[in-house]
Amino acid sequence: MSEPKNPAPAGDTYKGWVFKWTNYIKGYQRRWFVLSNGLLSYYRTQAEMGHTCRGTINLATATIAVDDACNFVISNGGAQTYHLKASCEVERQRWITALELAKAKAARMQAESDDSGDDFPPSSLPVAPGQGGGSQNSEVQSALRTLGSKVEDLSTCNDLISKHGSALQRSLSELDSLRLTGEAGEKIRQVTERATLFRITSNAMINACRDFLALAQAHSKRWQKALQAEREQRVRLEEALEQLAKQHNHLERAFRGAAQANAAPDIKGAAGPGKGEASDEDDDNEFFDAVEEAPEFITVPADPQFHKRSSSNASGFNSEMCSDDQSLNEEPLAMNQESPSQDLVPLKKRRTRIPDKPNYSLNLWSIMKNCIGKDLSKIPMPVNFNEPISMLQRLSEDLEYHELLDKAAKCHSSLEQMCYVAAFCVSAYSTTVYRTGKPFNPLLGETFELDRRRESGYRSLCEQVSHHPPAAAHHVISERGWTLRQEITVASKFRGKYLSIMPLGTIHAIFAKSNNHYTWKKVTTTVHNIIVGKLWIDQSGEIDVVNHTTGDRCHLKFAPYSYFSRDVARKVTGVVMDKDGKAHYVLSGTWDEKMEFSRVMQSSRGGENGTEGKQKTVYQTLKARELWKRNPLPDGAESMYFFTALALTLNEPEEGMAPTDSRRRPDQRLMEDGRWDEANSEKQRLEEKQRSARREREREAVSQRASSQSEEGAPHDSYKSRWFDRCEDQITGEQIHIYNGGYWEAKELGSWEGCPDIF
């Protein structure tokens, strides 16, 4: 729905169509708003203005806040709050300007009324020169026009009085000419005298009004000149301020360049090529840190002699490392190239589009305000906040850049392999940069298979193995020499202004050829601007990728976004070290775009002091080379939940799926088709069915304990997952779920005995 006409000012009145938030069902609805005499009132239609007002806010005590480009909020302290939306940013600014002027005017009127005890209409308020510029000038002109109109009315009344007075005197003169005697003649003479006095008084009043009008017009010219001078002065100040801001920006850039040049000539930051600051938010956003964090190390270009030395030269590196690293520096991402086989040719054409996301309005704060401090997984949420995939499918999106593990499996050097594993770890976050929608919470026993053996050589299986806390087990086996497994439990807390999502669990990558076993954990994801503003996502924290076979380690740091940082946004840095702590590679880049690596030729202590007085490590590195780069989003991704090419195919129905597969979930399918109301109803049905099944399992557990006369205890859920067995991890010592086999064999036979009925 679009706004057909602009707000129209009429004297002291400002009126127009604005969209007002009504409720969860109807969202924003168009209402006719009228701003007059410091009061903002609204009606359903213009026809209601004469008889039915739907609500009024006194602007003298109200607060006005801007949400984003089109939204603004007006509140009088809690009793009344209007969430409004204009048709465009220009219209919003017009309303904001009018509201602020009306608020200031109402506040002045209230203050003067409190001081004098008299109530003056808004039009009688004095206007101070230089306050309000053009808007105040318009108020003065309006007041003068009103005053002139009233004087003209008085002049008309004077003409009428003169006319009727003359007629009255003539009539009295005629009566007097009849030479009435006695008491009647005396009365006529008295009336004639009084009529003459009344005419003289009326003429004096009209002359005084004319003098007042002339005086007001003379003063108005001086007021206009003063206002015009103030307006011109304001324009000059704005131009000067803009010029100063440009000069300040230029000087700041020049100072930074000079500082970097003085600190280390040709210094190379650990973040690779520069990227613009990725935030267009206002000052009300909440950031993790208030000041820029100092880097843990500094990288500088290595001396050219290192490029010429052979692997046998005394450069501090053994010959094996130099020869192994040659492929990374000379032929990155192209080692051990093989002729493409027929297995790489896709046998099935995957879909490239899904139905566009409907434009349903919903106020997140109206639902989340009572959930501060609670676990998000325990809050019933409508599908309006979701995206049409489940958490199991979102977990499978980690395989978007599986080719990094394919290349890692071909590496001869464990340190070189570590670079690819670390890049794969970072690449998993590239799909989240625009994804502010919440995946569906999987039902207990829900599964998702991703069979890409023909196209990419791997098969993936996820299963929801626990509901409270929610936990998903994931197992991937690749024909190209690697296995990936993980069990992730998502802990989430709503903090009022932002949402923290903390994945708990360890990810394992095992390579068959070298028997290298890598583990790492995920960082914290934060969704900002939950209450107002545009949602945006940040990743922050540190990751240690550990090779338990060789002892190699890569420490990755995801820098949180900082408004005051001079560095690129979404920055990631890392150092690959051997078991002795010796650095061999430096990784740098951003988690939403690309990662690069640089081979370390020499390291030393020096540079600027760190945050605690410690000296930073300076790494002399060869030229940085690209390790991973994000694939571009499909055309029209902004209307398809910003899904990647892989994500678009995840909910595509396939033959032979298990009855518990996420693609069979009805509420998720209805949401993808744009039928959100039906999806919400179906979601409630599925959740109630899941709760009923859990209560039944608890009753069975109580019955079994009673029959076996076991010790008393609280009822517990005896659920056992179908495709994963619970055991202790030999590497980390954690209690995890390991794939027990049989799924793909059951799919080939079409035999799904033992699968629960969850849909």
Give an overview in words.
- By secondary structure, this protein is of the alpha+beta class.
- Among the domains are: 13-112, Pleckstrin-homology domain (PH domain)/Phosphotyrosine-binding domain (PTB) (PH-domain like, Roll); 150-244; 370-606 and 615-629 and 673-705 and 717-745, Porin.
- The protein is 34% helix and 25% strand.
- The chain contains 14 helices and 28 strands.
- Strands 1, 2, 3, 4, 5, 6, 7 and 8 form an eight-stranded antiparallel β-sheet that branches. Strands 15-16-19-20-18-17 form a six-stranded antiparallel barrel.
- A hairpin with a 3-residue loop joins strand 15 and strand 16.
- Helix 12 packs antiparallel against helix 13 (676-707).
- The longest helix is centred in the N-terminal third of the chain and has 81 residues, at 183-263.
- The radius of gyration is 39 Å and the shape is elongated.
- The two termini are 37 Å apart.
- Mean pLDDT is 78; it is low at 1-6, 117-134, 264-292, 308-327 and 329-344.
Topology:
Blueprint lengths: L7 E3 L2 E11 L3 E10 L2 E5 L11 E4 L4 E4 L4 E5 L5 E5 L3 H28 L17 H44 L5 H81 L33 E5 L3 H4 L10 H12 L33 H5 L17 E5 H6 L6 H7 L4 H14 L10 E3 L6 E6 H4 L1 E10 L2 E9 L3 E13 L3 E7 L2 E5 L5 E4 L3 E5 L7 E12 L5 E6 L12 E7 L5 E8 L3 E16 L5 E7 L3 E5 L15 H6 L15 H7 L3 H32 L16 E5 L6 E5 L3 H7 L10
What is the CATH topology assignment of the domain at 370-606 and 615-629 and 673-705 and 717-745? Porin
Report the strand count.
Answer: 28
Instruction: Give average pLDDT, whole number.
Output: 78
Name of the CATH first level of the domain at 370-606 and 615-629 and 673-705 and 717-745: Mainly Beta
Global structural class: alpha+beta
How far apart are the first and last residues' alpha carbons, in Å? 37 Å
Secondary structure tally, helices: 14
Beta-strand fraction estimate: 25-35%
C-alpha geometry = elongated
Q: What's the CATH architecture name of the domain at 370-606 and 615-629 and 673-705 and 717-745?
A: Beta Barrel
Helix content: 25-40%
What is the radius of gyration computed over CA atoms, rounded to a whole number of angstroms?
39 Å
Major sheet = 8 strands, antiparallel
- Which consecutive residue ranges, at least 5 long each, have pLDDT under 50? 1-6, 117-134, 264-292, 308-327, 329-344
